[in-house]
Amino acid sequence: MLIETRAYARAGLLGNPSDGFFGKTLSITVRNFGASVSLWQSPELHIEQQEADANTFRSIFHLCDTVGQIGYNGGIPLIKAAIRKFTLYCGDQGIRLPNRNFTIRYSSSIPRQVGLSGSSAIIVATMRALMQFYEVDIPLEYLPTLVLQAETEELGITAGLQDRVIQCYEGCVYMDFAKELVQSRGYGEYQRINPAQLPKLYLAYNTDMSKVSGKVHNDVRARFDRGEPLVHETLQSIANLATLGKEAIERRDYETLHELVNQNFDFRTRIYNIHPVNIQMIETARKLGASASFTGSGGSIIGLYRDDEMLNRLFVELRKLNARVIKPYVM
């Protein structure tokens, strides 16, 4: 029996980055890119190595370029973490797994290190394959929490729930991560939005982030934990934009949505250091009349555009900044 599963890239439209601070977000899946997992029964448990997992290089320069493009680790640690967390979850739930092994293979077309959540997509796809193989039903509302735990508890990755929620639910989702909900039951309140109500959206991502130091120092978490008023007020303002954006989409008020997307990024600059390359992408898109904000932590932007003429200008001008523009396929 061959099991094949998939999870897609995601883009935060509004509310970034309040999801890690008990905020609210509005996100979409970007089906233009995805992570795929194939799994089949075998005598031993085997994870197939892919190009991203290789440790042989043509030269030191090849190694440097590879690390710059895909990071220090490939997908195997993500799959190991997903398998371990799935197994522990089943044990905690009193679910007895049959004694059978499998071979698992993954692939991904999601651009790395540009804020489109390629890592969590691999874990989501792996979880889905394991659920099918072992015939285990994990409640949809809790699955994103399990995926997040695989990253934070198993791999020590700093992350929030937003990416995992939209990749598990798919489409367009409004999320409320109210502290009392998350702490009491492990997940927030998630509401699907009809993607047909969305306006014309573009997404642009930097194709040369290997030459950009995306690791600009930010200490927002420490400042938040210390109770710094500016940080708390700004993150609350960003969270409120998600609610306003949901309401704007529902009444198809795209002019308001356009302004909200811009405000999201502008609020972010109050408390975060932004890399000059990312600022240049935002400013270029806005000069052409489009709105622009980060899809995630940086490296890619999203916004509304008016018509095909504006979209073509975005293609041309952002290409000069080594950025590729696409129309996100959300359905």
From TrEMBL:
Q: Which residues form the GHMP kinase C-terminal domain?
A: 247-318
Signal peptide residue numbers: none
Q: Which InterPro entries match?
A: GHMP_kinase_C_dom (IPR013750), GHMP_kinase_C_sf (IPR036554), GHMP_kinase_N_dom (IPR006204), Glucuronokinase-like (IPR053034), Ribosomal_Su5_D2-typ_SF (IPR020568)
For whether the record's keyword set contains Transferase, the answer is yes
Q: List residues of the GHMP kinase N-terminal domain.
A: 78-171
Top-rank taxon of the source lineage equals Bacteria
Q: Which GO terms describe its molecular function?
A: ATP binding; glucuronokinase activity
- Keyword Protein transport carried by entry: no
Alphabetically sorted, this entry's keywords are:
ATP-binding, Kinase, Nucleotide-binding, Transferase
Please name the PANTHER family in this protein's record.
WITH PUTATIVE URIDYL PYROPHOSPHORYLASE-RELATED
Name of the molecule in the record = GHMP kinase
Q: Which organism is it from?
A: Siphonobacter curvatus
